[in-house]
Amino acid sequence: MVDKHGPRTQRNCKCNCEHGKMAMLDHACNFLIHLETSRLRKSLGSLILMDFSK
Questions:
Q1: Phi, psi of 42 (to 5 degrees)
Q2: Which domain of life is it from (predicted)?
Q3: Distance CA 54, CA 52 (A)
């Protein structure tokens, strides 16, 4: 099979596809981490406030 654009673009396309998947996973992980940390920060903040109010 002869590719008009040459073999390079096909390889890049596959690579970009894989990279896109990885980037999406990375973004999802970062988002989850962000949610967790903000939740932790809130709970820690309320704990600290409770300590001060005593």
A1: -65, -45
A2: Eukaryota
A3: 5
